[in-house]
Amino acid sequence: MKSVLSERKALHPPSIDDIEHRELPGTAAQALRDLAAEIARTVARSSADAAEFLADPALLAQIGARAGDLPAAVHTAVRPPATAAGACIVRGLPLSDSEIGPTPPDWQSAARWSADPGRTRGSFELDIAMLLLAAAAGEPFGWAGQQDGRLVNNIIPAAGHEFEQSGASSTVLLSPHTEDAFHPLRANMLMLACLRNLDSVGTTVSSVRRVRLPRPQQDILRTPTLPILPDVSYGSAFERAEAVPVPTLWSEPGHEDDPGSLTLRFDPAYTPLGDAGPEFREAYAQLERELERVCAVPALRRGELLLLDNDVAVHGRVPFTPRYDGTDRWLKRVNIRLPERPRRAAESRENGYGQQIVAPFAPMPPRPAVSVREAREERNGAVDDRGSIGHT
Question: Where does 2-oxoglutarate bind (predicted)?
């Protein structure tokens, strides 16, 4: 995919006309910001740790309880994408360049700056607004091994990571992938908020429900053949013997012959394709070519949200040249589970390589969840690479 996508210029709606667009009415958007500011004022920010602020039980209880007070237009705007594109852009979140301050040099700095009352308060309030939106859409959660268990992740280019397959990279194509494809509790939906994107850096979005794949190749990819391994951000303390083959494609129950119900689990960078036979590799390569063919490349603007159906669409990012001067691309991300959307029963038998979720808002499936503090203690030297910096 790199040979084409790396040469493709980022486009912006309405040039991308196959991605759904929604508008957050001004009064509803302001009500969201006002509620986030009100909740933020209840937090005594005496610590220098933003993770602790966003993990404060009283704060989270307010967010969970008061998300229902948001105007109906907010709930409507953040419902899952409704078209085959598997993605939706929501416009209208009020956000000024001055209130968020300069783009931090890395996610750790973003967390510290958000917690510092001497700096601009916009980023912290936006974290709360993101959690309010995510709670209106479903169940927000984080990963113990990702950005120290924070529920809101900052996606920022970082010096020294330019050529990695990482959300902190810049000068290479971030390959299309299902977010956290290795885990049965991966998000159903991702919410990405754009704080800054002066260079119109494009996010690649490809929906499996737009591909044309012969049924024999579909059947090959429906057969559990290879595992998807955790990316390096989750450390290396797992046994390859734990790896369980998973299908790349499947359909919603009762709709096996309907291409509009196709679902995928896709991360070629962490799928040991060399262990498969030639028929599987060719089917997988054809799927890659089709995902490239149907790829849209929207470039988010400040105040826009991108909702991605993580069961339907893969995403990545086109290359760009970072400046590291406080004006680079800056996104915030929240993982969301949709309780009304159960996954395949077979996934309940997967161990997820021991990776745990941080899920303070609602009961999750019967797997252990950890607090943010426990998440930070359990990192065990995991490298801050693709997932921990932000695989987006």
Answer: 223, 329, 333
Give the residue ranges of the annotated binding site: 177, 179, 223, 315, 329, 333
Cβ pair 387, 180 in contact under 8 A:
yes
Considering Cα of 286, then 289, then 293, then 294, what sign does the dihedral take?
positive
Q: Looking at the chain, how many residues does it have?
A: 392
> What are phi and psi for residue 21, nearest 5 degrees?
-125, 140
221-227 long-range CB contacts below 8 Å, 24 or more apart?
221/247, 221/248, 221/249, 221/280, 221/283, 221/284, 221/287, 222/247, 222/248, 222/249, 222/250, 223/247, 224/346, 225/276, 225/280, 226/271, 226/272, 226/273, 226/275, 226/276, 226/280, 227/182, 227/271, 227/272
Determine phi and psi for 20, rounding to 5 degrees: -60, 145
Report yes or no: 208 and 262 within 8 Å, Cβ to Cβ.
yes
- The answer to whether residues 52 and 125 touch, using CB atoms and an 8 Å cutoff, is no
Residues 116 and 47 sit within 8 Å (Cβ to Cβ): no
**Plot region of 228 (φ>0 → left; ψ -120 to 50 → alpha; else → beta):** beta
Question: 11: buried, middle or exposed (CB in 10 Å: 19+, 13-18, 0-12)?
Answer: middle
Separation of CA 341 from chain center: 17
Distance CA 179, CA 332 (A): 15
Q: Which residues are annotated as a binding site for 2-oxoglutarate?
A: 223, 329, 333
- Kindly state the DSSP code that residue 325 receives in the 8-state scheme: S
* Reported pTM: 0.87
Within 10 angstroms of residue 180's Cβ, the number of other Cβ atoms is 27
- Work out the end-to-end distance of the chain between its first and last CA atoms, rounded to an integer number of angstroms: 16
pLDDT averaged over consecutive 10-residue blocks of the chain (392 residues)? 43 55 97 94 58 76 93 97 96 91 91 72 84 97 89 91 71 87 96 96 96 95 94 61 88 73 94 97 98 96 98 95 94 96 90 89 53 46 38 58
Amino acid occupying residue 343 = R
State the binding site for Fe cation: 177, 179, 315
Q: Could you tell me the CATH superfamily of domain 2-208+296-389?
A: Clavaminate synthase-like (3.60.130.10)
Single out the residue of 101, 99, 114, 131 nearest to residue 49, CA to CA: 114
Quote the DSSP letter at residue 103.
Answer: P
